[in-house]
Structure prediction request, 205 residues.
Amino acid sequence: MENPLRSHYQEELMEAGCDEAGRGCYAGPVFAAAVILPQGFFHPLLNDSKQVAAEIRNELRGYIQSNALAWAVARVDHDEIDRINILKASFKAMHLALDQLKPKPKLLLIDGNRFIKYKRTPHRCIVKGDSIFASIAAASILAKTWRDEYMQTLHAEFPHYRWDSNKGYGTKDHRTAIEKFGLCKYHRRSFNIDPQAAEAAQLEL
Prediction:
């Protein structure tokens, strides 16, 4: 099966793909991953995590973690999201993931159109990069699966928000629970979530 993803942006420098998960959620942390793939890395089902079924994402997670040259996952929690804003928190999570990588990449491929420079490492921002480059797609898979797993643990503490299924996004069942039970300690207060605001925000997701 042919995979349309490009294996690398260039061939001279060791590069890492970076992506985040959970930026648009009402609750919980934002996660980010950084992945360095070897030459010749291939999996026919690898794609942007949003385009891959949950069971395939988990299969890909194991494959990526076993076959990548290096990978790392990091998170920034809801309270820090409220302090510094979600965009900066997303970039900080990426930086924290990059801090863990060994060996260190010489070029960063960032999903999206903005990034805060990481040390002296050059980077390229690539819109929808998780559907173009294998390393960014791999990072999206790791960030998404690690965050989903973490939200399962928060669901055990507050099951009425149904984070086991909505993962903290502003779905109808989540909004209904907020209307009934109010906000809990894991909700992002800076998102100004109330039933009316939540419904309006959901239209933008």
